[in-house]
Design brief:
- The chain is of the alpha/beta class and about 350 residues long.
- The protein has a domain at about 5-15 and about 25-235: P-loop containing nucleotide triphosphate hydrolases (Rossmann fold).
- Helices cover about 30% and strands about 20% of the residues.
- It has twelve helices and 14 strands.
- Strands 6-7-8-3-9-10-14-13 form an eight-stranded mixed sheet, with helices on both faces.
- β11 and β12 (about 310-315) form a beta hairpin.
- The longest helix is centred in the middle third of the chain and has 18 residues, at about 185-205.
- The mean pLDDT is about 90.
- Bound molecules: iron/sulfur cluster and magnesium ion (MG).
- GO terms for molecular function: ATP binding; ATP hydrolysis activity.
- It is a peripheral membrane protein.
- One of its GO terms (biological process) is transmembrane transport.
Length: about 350
């Protein structure tokens, strides 16, 4: 069976060219050649810092923005080549939930109207849509009587439940969730993550779950992809990624996830990337993580083929060759690092 979603070498460049006054405008490679597949009913967690390109990738997948290159296939249809009309016909099957339940909900519409809108827009009669909206409210753990209330009468968690009800109203096979719990309290986060798991178990919907920390996606993801400056640098089944991370960037992100056990907390490796995330407008040569990579410094200290870079000695491979995302720990565990097994 072919994948539900098949993303091939997807790219998005912003800027470039010249400003009005003739100055060169920097080109930002926000998404710089990303490929992955998603099976029906699967959850892929997509993790990265602000500026890694994860939200851009989520929007490209649904073609809410136009890609610069590459292809997205969804249910065996080429989304990137689809006409406006074909895309509109596909919309009910591919939905999005946004980070900010306040910003993404129209304050002048009742909860019932917000949930019913995508249904009426796709030909469901008003009475039928209202009835279904009431049932959807119950499905997301809210009272059907709340259909008559306005967004300001709900808490952040309740608003996110409304956003989710709206997204699943037309029984999609894919929902892209862009930081759906980042604006919520930790206890409310857990409730929303449980709700998403329940919905998936019942309907078989697939999720692309975008988050900025590995702690949040751990419980909901079958596989996890880690993004850095427009690329996926590691992708693996959940347990492999958390149990035996191969990319030094993933290792550093995991070191930042708090653990409940204070004993383990004490023994945790203290790996930190050096400095701040760089910019997709001026990508480093070779491996884009090399200016921040603790492993490159460690490998260079052991000798071998090194060069002077970033004021220190680094392996010449790290500075000169862009590492490809390739199997590094079994066929399903991919990493983009020249030294995936050295620490
Ligand atoms: Fe670090 Fe080199 Fe691996 Fe890049 S290729 S992550 S710089 S060790
Ligand atoms: Mg974002």
């Amino acid at each position: 069976m072919s994948a539900l979603l098949d993303v091939r070498d997807l790219r998005k460049t912003f800027g470039g060219g010249q400003t009005l006054f003739g100055a060169p405008r920097p080109e930002v490679r926000a998404v710089d050649g990303i490929s992955f597949t998603l099976a029906r009913g699967e959850t892929l967690g997509l993790v990265g810092e602000t500026g890694s390109g994860k939200s851009t990738l989520g929007r490209l997948v649904l073609r809410l923005i136009e890609p610069s290159a590459g292809q997205v296939r969804f249910e065996d249809t080429d989304v990137t080549a689809a006409s406006t009309r074909a895309l509109r016909a596909m919309r009910p099957r591919m939905q999005m939930v946004f980070q900010d339940p306040y910003g993404s909900i129209d304050p002048r519409m009742t909860a019932g109207a917000i949930i019913a809108e995508p249904m009426t827009a796709h030909g469901v009669g008003r009475a039928e849509a209202a009835g279904r909206a009431a049932r959807l409210l119950a499905q997301v753990g809210l009272s059907p009587a709340m259909a008559a209330r306005y967004p300001h009468e709900f808490s952040g968690g309740q608003r996110q439940r409304i956003g989710i009800a709206r997204a699943i109203a037309l029984d999609p096979s894919l929902v892209v969730l862009d930081e759906p719990v980042s604006a919520l309290d930790v206890s409310v986060q857990a409730q929303i993550l449980n709700l998403l798991a329940e919905i998936q178990a019942r309907s078989g919907v697939a999720f692309l779950f975008i988050a900025h920390d590995l702690g949040v996606v751990r419980h909901v993801s079958d596989r996890v992809a880690v993004m850095y400056l427009g690329r996926v640098v590691e992708m693996a089944p959940r347990d492999a990624l958390y149990g035996a991370p191969l990319h030094p960037y993933t290792v550093s992100l995991l070191a930042a996830v708090p653990r409940p056990d204070p004993l383990k907390e004490r023994n945790r490796p203290r790996i930190r990337p050096i400095g701040e995330i760089g910019s997709a407008a001026s990508l480093p040569t070779g491996c884009r993580f090399h200016p921040r990579c603790p492993r490159a410094r460690l490998v260079a200290a052991r000798g071998g083929d090194t060069v002077e870079a970033e004021g220190t000695r680094l392996p010449s491979a790290c500075v000169r060759q862009d590492p490809l995302l390739a199997p590094a720990g079994g066929a399903a565990h991919l990493a983009a690092c020249h030294f995936p097994h050295e620490d």
